[in-house]
Amino acid sequence: DFLCISLANGFIQLRYNLGDKTVILQTFQKVHANGNTWHLLKAGRVGNEGYLDLDGINITQKARPGMNVLDTHTDFFVGGVSSLNLVNSMAVENEPTSFTGCIREIVINNRELKLTVTDPKGGANVGDCDGTVCGYTVCKNNGTCQVENSGFSCSCPREWIGSTCEQSIHCSQNRCGSQALCIPQPTSFSYICVCALGWSGKYCDSKIKFFIAKFVGNSYIKYTDPYYGKRDLQYSRISLNFTTNQTEGLIVWMGKAEDEDNDFLAIGLANGTLKVVINLGERISVPLIHSKYSTCCDERWHFITVVQNQTCIKVYLDEELILFEDIDPHRKYTALNYGGICYFGGFEIGRKVNIVTAGLFQKEFIGKIKDVVLFQDSKKIQLMKAEGYNVYNGNYGN
C-alpha cells in the first residue's frame, strides 16, 4: 500500500493504492516554478474515495468497491526518500526524483508535523527556506521577527512576552506550582492554574492522594498499560465504576487517539444513555447504544463492563447484559490494537473531545471514576500513577 503526492510536468498528482488498484488524481492547474508564490495543497482519502485541492480548486475521485484502509508499515517521507528503491513504480508518473522547493505547515490527520532539526527521525540536505535566522513562525502568537546582527528579535503583540512571544503577560508572574499549567484569562487580566495529577489547590501546591478520580471538565487521565505487549488483543476487557449527573461525556477511550487509523474501544454518555463504540480496523466505527434511557446520569454509582471476544461485543451495566452484538461476522479484523493507551474523562489540554472522537462523543466527562480493571487482571489500575491534569480527590463528598 502507498499514498504519494508529487509534481508531474507541473501538475500536482495524488496517487494511492490500498492493496487492490492504484488511484490517480491530478490538478487542473499547473504550479508555476517562479519560486515566489506559496500554494495551499490539501489531499487525502476517505475510505477509497480520494480528494485533491490546490488553492481552493478541488478534484474528487468517486469511490468504487474495493479496499478501504491504507496499511503502511514504513516511515513517512517529506520532499524525498532515503533510497529511490523505496518508491513504488506506480507511485509517480516518471522516474522518482526529490522535491526542490519549500514546504511548510504540514498537517497530517489534524496534527502539524514539526519540521525542525530535532523532531524528525532523520533527513539530509534540507535548509531554511526563509534564508534568514527568522525562518518561519520563529515568533509565536503573531509576533514579528526582525533579523539582528546577533541573531533575531521578536516584536510581540501587547498580551505576549518572551524572546519568541511564547508567554502570556497574564502568566509572567504566575504562582502556579512547578507541576501545573498556567492558563491565561485575558478577559479578567488574570490566570488560572491547572493542576497535574496528584496536586490541588488554587496554585496546585497541595499534594493529594485518591482512589476515586473526580473529573470537573477539561480533565483527563492518560494511562499507559505496562502489560500491553503481553495482552491477547483478540480478547480484551475493561470494567469500572462511574457516577455522574451529566447526559453527555466521554468516560474512557482505549486507544492512542492520534489519527483516524488507530483502533479504539470507547465508553461514554450520549443523550442521557450509555454509548459504546468499537473500531478494530478499517476506520469503521460501530456504535452500540443502550436502547433505554438508563439510570446512568442519576448521581449513583454504576458498574460497567465491556468484553471484546474477537468481533463479538458484550456490554454489562450493573451486572446486567444490556448489549450483545457481532460487529463483523466476516471476522476481517479481530484484535483491538489500542497501543496500550487508555484515556479517562477526555484528552490532553486543548484537544476537544468532539474533534478527537470525530463527533462520536461531544464533551469531557464530569463525574467520578473508580475501580478500573483491564483484561482479567487481579488488581485495579493505579490512576494516581498515570499522567493527567485537572483531576481531583473524589474520595469524599460531592
From TrEMBL:
Which keywords does UniProt give here? Calcium, Disulfide bond, EGF-like domain, Glycoprotein, Repeat, Signal
The answer to keyword Hydrolase applying to this record is: no
The Laminin G domain, residue ranges:
1-129, 210-398
Q: What is the protein name for this chain?
A: Protein eyes shut
Q: PROSITE patterns from the entry?
A: EGF_1, EGF_2, EGF_3, LAM_G_DOMAIN
Instruction: Cite the CDD domains for this sequence.
Output: EGF_CA, LamG
Q: Which residues cross the membrane?
A: none
